[in-house]
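INTERNAL AUDIT FORM
Audit reference: QA-55
Scope: verify that the stored structure record matches its stored sequence.
Auditor: D.O.
Record contents follow.
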Amino acid sequence: MLLYSRIYIAFFACVCIAFYAINSCLKNNIKLRLLLSQLLILLASLAFYAFGGIGLLKWLVYIIGITYAYGIVATKNSSKYVYVFFVILQLFPLILFKYNSYAGYIGIPLGLSFYTLQAVTYATAVYKGKIENEKSPVV
């Protein structure tokens, strides 16, 4: 989806209206408003990414899942081996698409390097204790 196309403008307008509706209707319930707003942004991001190819969306969901799982495991076991294992799992799609000649015919998913390196950065920060892990999968 091109950023200057009509479908993007309509998509963006719908997301903005929904976001505004959530925030204006739930002024008194801050926790629910925050949860629904974050869920809307997550689903809108996944929908936007899916426009690039619904089959490639599984890699983004994979990276999100592995990164969230590491955050949970890191609170119980913060060993170096667990950290290295999860970083290898996070880097797997990037290595698969960048260095596999067959994957070149399929095409690299949009933003795969960005999402992967953001996930590795998050895992490294949690491992070093610079940030706490996320408690909610929506945030």
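Auditor finding: record pair retrieved intact. Helices lie at 6-25, 30-50, 57-76, 80-99, 103-106, 112-128.
Action required: none
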